[in-house]
Amino acid sequence: MILSRKFLKDYVDIDDNIDIKTLAEDMTRVGNEYDLAERLVPATKLIVGKVLECKEHPDSDHLHCCKVDVGNEVLNIVCGAPNVRAGIKVIVALAGAELPGGVTIKKGNIRGQESNGMICALYEIGIDKKFLSEEDKNGIHILPDDAPIGKDPVEYMKLDDSIIDFELTANRGDLLSILGMAYEVGAIYDKSVKIPDIKHNESGEDLNKSFSVKVNTENCTLFIARKALNVKIKESPDFIKNRLIACNIRPINNVVDISNYVMLECGQPLHFYDADRLGNVIETRMAKNGEHITTLDGNDRCLEDTDIVISDGKRAIGLAGVMGGLDTEIEETTKNVLIEAAIFDNVKIRKTSNKILRSEASNRFEKGLDPSRTYMAMERAVKLLEEYADAQIQKGKVVYDKTEKEEKKITITAKDINNLLGTNITNKETIDVFRRLGFDTVLNGDIITVTVPTRRLDISIKEDLIEEVGRIYGVDNIEGKLPSSPIRMGSLDKTDRDIRNKMVSLGLNETLSYVLVNDKEVHKYTKDEFEELKLLAPMTEERNVLRYSLIPSLYKIYEYNKSHYIKDVALFEIGKGFWKKDETYGENKKLCCLMTGEYYLGIDVKKDVDFYVIKGVVEEVLNYLGYENRYSFVIPKQNIAEFHPGQVAEINVNGDIIGIIGRIHPEISKEPVFVFEINLDKLLDKRVSKMKFKDISIYPTVNKDIAVMINKDITSDEISKVIKKAGGNLLVNYKLFDIYTNLALGNKKSVAYSLTFGSNSKTLTDEEINPIIEKIVEALEKNFKAELRK
Amino acid sequence: MKEKIEEIRKSAKEKIDKIQNLQELQDLKVKLLGKKSELSELLKGLGELAKEERPKIGSLVNETRQEIEQKILEAEDVLKEKAMNQKLEKEKIDITAPSTKMRRGSKHPLNRVIEEIQDIFVSMGYDVVDGPELETDEFCFERLNLPKGHPARDMQDSFYITDEYLLRTQTSSVQARTMLANKEKTPIRMICTGKTYRREDDATHSHQFNQVEGLVVDYKDKNTSLADLKGTLEIFMKRMLGPNTELRFRPSYFPFTEPSYEVDVTCFKCGGKGCPLCKKTGWIELLGSGMVHPKVLEMNGYDPEKYSGFAFGTGIDRLAMFKYGITDMRYLYTNDVRFLSQFDRQDKD
Fold it and tell me: According to the model, what pLDDT value does residue B152 have?
């Protein structure tokens, strides 16, 4: 909504010394944000001049050298406009003038000829080209002969106005009118609001006798029709044109302009029909599915049964609240005008206008309208038609009215206000705020009964009134304090944070990627069964589905970095994966990790990431979370296409698969890239005990190494289990430290373990340890036909 | 006899002085002081001497022996030091050569800011709660006083999966969940941080972004006035953005609060003087807030006659961008390792 200061001043008498920026800031403080506050014509140092002489530039085929009388001197100005000539009055920008777009006029020389100013076109001083005539679009502006030389041309043209472009909140439909703005500004500066003049004559037979209004839908609650006869279509007076321009509406002719002018004043959109093309009846109804109408813009529209239409009883002649029909449009030849002022359902209008066109009118219908303004706007329109289009107003109006007539009364106490705002406002102050807002109040004891004006559709409960008090009293006047609640510590589940810290300490970079991915990726890296969650209206097909696994996201990040020559990548992310199964929707928190390249590098040390490095990361995390000795890595029963079939495992905790780890298939990535993903919800569901200190033995431990030849396919896990079982209590630790295979060994491999023995109660002797080692070797021989290497 | 001992002493000293390494010294020690050494032999032959000579010679031999031992010990120290020096010399390295490269881990800047916010509010007694990102229309809109067809829904073009399910457009959905879940209807002080989604993507908006949402509900006239909201947000913003940060509350409209306020903070860039970032106003719009709408309380089981509350929310992405001077929002979601690995430094206040 653009507010014109001059327009506003018709209805509320604001001080001239309040400049437009101050007004805008004051409005902001009561909740009305603005984008822009400036003069309608932002150019400075403009003056009316008369071209005394105009000669062709000796060194150019289109420039002119002019002598321009600006009152106290005659300036030499070089001008390139095709329509400049001697004898006309023009707008001159003097040296030092600033024009929109950052142009500053300087004294100077144009191709060898002195030029001490600029003769301006209207668009050069800040009037949008869409408002200009063809001549003004293509050349300088020629002022009428009575323009006073040496005076301000902007003032002469009555364009000396200022504007504020407001960005209003969705609930304040009342501010989509100059009158609504006047009440708001009046409340800020404590000024009263004037009511538009609606006095007019009317004559002839009552319209009700010859014309009828039918409403066949509940989506229209108010419909008023009046007729203005014998209108004279012509140009609007300057003040109407200028105010429309200020409010960014293009003037067309006096009749059309009046409908827009009244809409700006009262906030009520009107529609004017050529009455002679209409008939004796006007009907409001829902469109039929597939019904067609040609709208004002010449487009054919196919309608649905959710669109409200206006009909002449036979066919649709307008799309209610959105756009009129071409057939009944006001034209140069129109003589008699039927005026419609109506209220349509805001939700329906929004739906239709979203589909077809958002206009000044639909914007107002969407926000809801005040019925008393509908009546006011009708009377104001006929008054202006009488005055500026020489219309005779036919007696009577045809009215269909189902609007609520009861006044809204809300009771409130100063205590209610002070409780919510944390203030100490008195009854008297409260009543004064309402007076300034133009709300009637009655005080009874401590209870204030407030009558809410019909224009304020946004106010329906006590809290709305408290907001009004807060606004006008001034939020800045409310001192902030801290809740004096009992002291307590807030609760925070730090698990995510702890995992994040652990991963960071292992040298991984945390990423944050998009949840929306492409549907081709969603079933990758998993054999889990689920239905993917597709968006009803994706922004792009690239992101049309919610991800299930984070692995594709991390792999994309790896590819991005690789393409930027970053080879060592170690990433992790904690995020959600989404799914649907048997009509149940779910989401799980997942920890995903990707590693490739060098894990560390020194002058003579180097470690590339391999399966065992990333497996180490998994174990670090699981041990850290308390799952030590409760997990294993299991070869998957089903092949997952995206993984290297020989380097993949399911991560198993207490018999449940909680994640996957593996190398990405060489067909996807030539470089060895390793990933794992853990379903944290599933994992953390498994309870762990509190961390507890373990006593440190004061007796020394003894290390013994053994090496056995064993079948190649026997896994380290299987061997470990046998060693652990045979070793018993005194075997406190065991570690695989070498695996050796070569061709000569055939299908055998040599594995070497370091065994640590110890006791909490004594120092162990060889006599105690050797039998245990023998037991371990025996068990390995028995289970795997292993041979001890001596 | 005396001459003999003197000779032994002399030759031993000479020999010791010539020794170059510890092993030779050890061998010499055996030769000079061992069972078969000349000195030992002399002691063995002591019986052959005259009775009165014996103690004299005996003590002379022992003195000489001690002297030689002492001499060997000294020589040993010198040689040890020499050997150590040689070893150290050999082990000398170029300390300016590059270190072994450790992996640099780092936390994503958005999560760093989220953790900071969580800590601020936990210290003020707020519980940090979590909620689903795949939300129902009911919790995302309806229970927040945004019935179907409400004009404010236009402001939030959403990613729907079905008519019922959508990606949450705001963390406010957790407000309703928290109030409903609290069966005893005890006072609430909570924040929720996390991902939110809206159907827009341009230079300043990502379709996925992060929000923090706060909610306080308490018995009426207790700790839940606009003044309390102001004080709370002042602390929050001063802690996040610096002690000189000022706040400006502007009345606004949100369906779930009444009254509602947008909150501006002193422009991060110019400190309030006015610059292109703040469009010369000196203020940056940063938070939405207000007193919980009685309908929202009622719909979620809190009697608005007995309880009142305040709520607030803000975007975390913009806070993070300011905090670390990140110039382009896209950095936050591109995950360039050269960007990520910069965030391995402690935050300084």
Answer: 63
